[in-house]
Hints:
Layout: H1 3-6, H2 9-21, H3 24-48, H4 62-72, H5 75-82, H6 93-103, H7 106-111, H8 115-134
Helix pairs in contact: 2-3, 4-6, 5-8
Amino acid sequence: xxxxxxxxxxxxxxxxxxxxxxxxxxxxxxxxxxxxxxxxxxxxxxxxxxxxxxxxxxxxxxxxxxxxxxxxxxxxxxxxxxxxxxxxxxxxxxxxxxxxxxxxxxxxxxxxxxxxxxxxxxxxxxxxxxxxxxx
Length: 135
């Protein structure tokens, strides 16, 4: 099975976006959807790798690496800004360990925007959407 086929990132991206831009009950619903989507991604990874943890040596599988670090790499910033728990190490141990390992790769560190700039961007997106929702 090809990881590009088995892991559809769109639902994950959409639910993460809703967690970032909603409050209250709407955010809680988005969190439930995000948890469901993270579980599906984790199950897809486990199925593709047949229970063997994928190696993050910078060689394989590139699509999965990019997907995980792009969508979930800044999860701690989103958690800080929104107050929502994005990745729970107990609920999503595989995703947590993979994202943590990816964030330590020199190439990822080099390509990741500075923490303060990324946090400012997440805050801006959230505030802009919350303002437009209230008008």
